Structure prediction request, 475 residues.
Amino acid sequence: MAQAFDLVVLGAGPAGYVAAIRAAQLGMRVLCVDAGLGKDGKPSLGGTCLNVGCIPSKALLESSEHFHRARAELKDHGITTGEVRMDVAAMLARKDQVVHGLAAGISVLFAKNKVTSIAGTARLQAGMRVEVTPLAGGSAETFEARHILIATGSLPRDIDAVPIDGKVVVDSTGALDFPAVPERLGVIGAGVIGLELGSVWHRLGSQVVLLEAMDTFLPGADEQIADAAMKEMSRQGLDIRLGARVLAAKIGHDSVEVTYENHDGKHVIEFSRLVVAVGRKPNTQALNVNEVGLLLDERGNVHVDDLCRTNLPNIFAVGDVVRGPMLAHKASEEGVMVVERIAGQTTRVNYDTVPWIIYTSPEIAWVGKTERQLRSAARDYKIGVFPLSANGRARAMGQTMGLTKILADQHSDRILGVHIMAPMASEMIAEAVLAMELGASTEDVQRTIHAHPSLAETTHEAALAADGRMLNFHG
Ligand code: NAD
Prediction:
């Protein structure tokens, strides 16, 4: 007889592994199946985020930032060094170690929480059964499930015009492992991945050109922040070409020739390496959707409602494989919601307060509405903006590019959106998320004591600015 579980989770990324642990905490018997392999070819938990996404890219951002500072900024602090050199192999080894440590940590958490974990490919079968083919080989095994959670994530999207050979032309995974700093790096797509990985290699010495199909830079961000970011990144030396439609890419000997078209005609440009970062697509490949009758939406995502229920009873889906932003923290919260509701709780995800972060330098982070969204919804709103250049901590750090901006309802004073471009904006945004989660007004933030000197004071000052009460700037 097939072994039975209360919950079978497909995928051990931030959606699946978190849900599996929470379900085990709630007393469920849980099986989590994951097909991910690490760089060493061995099974590795953690999904895209941990193995080839958020974590390794942040490790490289950190290394490249240190390198850049050592070369360009230490002298401002009176520090003299010898020639600063980059050992790319050592940087990559450190990155791999960070990934490996965290992935191993998930195995420990699974063991401690008594989650059964199998390295294998899962396939849905009729009658609440899941067939698992082990990565290690051997015959497939079938399990019975009272509930199933699909958390199979996403895969890089490619474009027909650009063949990926894994050496000269790579996707975001390949761009984490260039063995040497490419002299001329092309990036197709100036979205989150393009900007983050473009920044890494730029700081390490590559000349970077980003070819972006759209005419608007960072359309999801607030316009004022997107404009400021475009100026700052261009000043840093990133060559961002908007309205650039890539027509062809010809891989030569150790280089690639890219043809693109923009408003002033066709252009050909040669790169030593090219990264394709044009978005990601839901990973539904191995699910057997047709046979079990699982409904997908028009974009190929598993169709779900607000509570992440699919069209099939007791089968749920969360994270990148469903609608909404492809963000690890959104995925985790959805996973927790699903298992808590299975356990009889009334948990919901507040999709209005999902923070966004782009890990460039300075970082960009936001939560809630942009001005564009408020204008199109015809909301009466007020604005408070405070520049980093007037903040003591930012000046002491020597990092004064950026601003903090608060948008609030003109009548009720309730905060509707917070937009930050600043060093560690990823940390600063947490205050704004909490404020919005608690339905705070700008007055609540105005009357909250912010430690001095700190970057968080820019949020305080932006809240004051929304009522014309700014103290440390007169603009
Ligand atoms: P994205 O959607 O952020 O950006 C892709 C960009 O490529 C878009 O600007 C798009 O206009 C452009 N593009 C598409 N086709 C093109 C073409 N043919 N030629 C030129 N440009 C083209 O996607 P991404 O950067 O690939 O990231 C994928 C997903 O991963 C996103 O959903 C993102 O939210 C997520 N992610 C998040 C983070 C983070 O939160 N910091 C980091 C990395 C990835």
About this structure: The CA atoms of residues 7 and 147 lie 5 Å apart.
